[in-house]
């Protein structure tokens, strides 16, 4: 598993929500997030910084912010990342300022990240909502990895070994979705997003004028 690094950050309440989705490889996280974004335009993906080169039709600022090693080093030195990781000799990081700016103006931001990064984001942003996607069984997880046809057998075994470590952390997450039937799992994900928007703190922040017009004061 990649080692992740973090910096301390004083949390604040924002009108936007920060959702963090984690899962072992093969659990269906990316497909669920992609379907959620097609359904819910208010959910905006987080754009990470990386030192790797663009692939295919990737564009700077859309899939990633592509930066040099020197630029990345400078951001690390300036504590610009809420977390960062070295993965396959390339570095990836989530900028604190970018997250703050977007949720501060009411944007609901969604991060797809491994469990180590998710827990570090939670430390920096205690109001972040952590969601873990589980497969229905080990046999199904193996079948999905094999059916993708992307990895050699030894890579699949490594992914399964990593999955055991990742799933052992599930109790530290706020919500758990078991992706047995895709449509049911997607419904669960939509429900979590919608329910979070209806919490008192979120409604009070997002619809402050309504509370004020109804003479509802903020409790001490």
From TrEMBL:
Its EC number is 2.7.4.8. Belongs to the guanylate kinase family. It is found in: Cytoplasm. Transmembrane segments: none annotated. PANTHER family: GUANYLATE KINASE, GUANYLATE KINASE-RELATED. Keywords: ATP-binding, Cytoplasm, Kinase, Nucleotide-binding, Transferase. This is Guanylate kinase. ATP binds at residues 23-30. GO terms for cellular component: cytosol. It comes from Delftia acidovorans (strain DSM 14801 / SPH-1). Essential for recycling GMP and indirectly, cGMP.
